[in-house]
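Summary of Year 1 activities. Much of the first year was spent building the evaluation harness for sequence design. The harness presents a backbone, in tokenized form, and records the residue chosen at every position. We chose the following record to illustrate the format because it has been used consistently in internal testing since the harness was completed.
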């Protein structure tokens, strides 16, 4: 944890005749300065930054403005607890999570936490407006492709058809605080929306604690809140340690969906971890999709949906979505990459040298 404090410059070195005397004075003044800094940082309101690991080893970075060191220590702990709480509800990889209990329960109804109800309602909304491109009931198809990787062969058509019959938002009902699944072999997977929801919940936690401005960043996916502008870096899909560009925007949720980090390999070919639920096949067209939206939950869902829909369908959908902006990276027929975004966003982006000249607007 680190808080940046501006203190008045001080004279650390006093000239003396003997080396020892000089050494003692320097050491003593260093200790005094250090104590002053520690003392000041305890009371001075400033920009603080801290981090922890969550969601399978992702670094979660929290920045808050106008906080004392003591306040921020509590802020960070509260955010970490909240993230842990939500992972215990949303994660398919934790056997006692609400999601895992639901997936095990098969055809039945279960009482679940209000956080899960909220995220499922949002998921239904995005499934509706993307014509089923976004679908959190995609679990059986994800499992089918993982199995295919283990067996080293593509899924057969019949297997795909049978698996698809257990996928579809119409098979999921929300009744008050109960969720009902209508097939035994259904399974929900919140991988396309949970990170965004966790980022938004982290922001809520900070706001409830009285933080007016800050940023929560989980491995490049960001929720920024409060007044003023925030510098947002866009990850380079071809080099995950580099940024493709930066832009300055007001409070925002920014989430990137891409097939460059997670994939299955079958017969030497890489297949995306994002599946088109309508055909049961991994998506191929877009390398990466970054969505800017009013919150991270919706940006996350839309980024995954656009990865499924492809550029042209996405541009059609975006005309009806006022509060969202998108950057789509696509391989063109010359084997190079195009960076597609709306003209208003293009004006704000500062692209890194390897990407200059790749911008295309719609
Ligand atoms: P993201 O990185 O947000 O695009 O999420 C990708 C993850 O979402 C995958 O690893 C799956 O867990 C899940 N997923 C895959 N395909 C879909 C889909 N069509 N709709 C919703 N979630 C999906
Ligand atoms: Mg997503």
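For this record, the design step produced the sequence shown next.
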């Amino acid at each position: 944890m680190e808080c940046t404090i501006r203190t008045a410059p001080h004279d650390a070195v006093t000239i003396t005749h003997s080396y020892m005397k000089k050494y003692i004075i320097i050491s003593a003044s260093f200790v005094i300065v250090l104590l002053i800094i520690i003392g000041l940082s305890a009371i001075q309101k400033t920009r603080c930054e801290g981090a922890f690991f969550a969601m399978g080893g992702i670094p979660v970075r929290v920045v808050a403005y106008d906080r004392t060191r003591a306040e921020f220590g509590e802020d960070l702990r509260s955010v970490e607890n909240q993230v842990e709480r939500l992972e215990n509800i949303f994660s398919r990889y934790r056997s006692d999570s609400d999601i895992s209990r639901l997936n095990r329960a098969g055809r039945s109804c279960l009482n679940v936490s209000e956080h899960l109800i909220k995220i499922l309602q949002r998921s239904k909304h995005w499934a509706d407006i993307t014509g089923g491109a976004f679908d959190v009931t995609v679990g059986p198809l994800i499992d089918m492709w993982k199995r295919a990787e283990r067996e080293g062969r593509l899924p057969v058509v019949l297997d795909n058809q049978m698996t698809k019959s257990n996928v579809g938002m119409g098979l999921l009902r929300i009744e008050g605080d109960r969720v009902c699944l209508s097939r035994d072999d259904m399974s929900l997977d919140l991988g396309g929306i949970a990170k965004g929801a966790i980022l938004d919940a982290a922001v809520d936690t900070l706001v409830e604690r009285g933080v007016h401005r800050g940023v929560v960043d989980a491995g490049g996916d960001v929720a920024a809140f409060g007044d003023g502008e925030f510098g947002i870096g866009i990850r380079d899909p071809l080099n995950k340690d580099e940024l493709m560009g930066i832009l300055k925007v007001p409070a925002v949720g920014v989430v990137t969906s891409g097939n460059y980090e997670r994939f299955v390999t079958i017969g030497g070919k890489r297949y995306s971890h994002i599946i088109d639920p309508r055909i049961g096949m991994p998506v191929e067209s877009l390398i990466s999709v970054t969505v800017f939206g009013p919150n991270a939950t919706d940006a996350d869902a839309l980024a995954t949906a656009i990865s499924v829909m492809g550029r042209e369908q996405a541009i059609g959908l975006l005309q009806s979505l006022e509060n969202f902006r998108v950057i789509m990276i696509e391989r063109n027929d010359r084997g190079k990459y195009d960076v597609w975004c709306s003209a208003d966003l293009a004006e704000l982006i500062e692209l890194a040298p390897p990407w200059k000249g790749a911008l295309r607007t719609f």
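The pocket of adenosine monophosphate (ligand 1) is lined by residues 134-136, 138, 142, 189, 191-192, 257, 262, 273-275, 277, 300, 303-304, 307-308 (CB under 6 Å). Quantitative recovery figures across the full test set are reported in Table 2.
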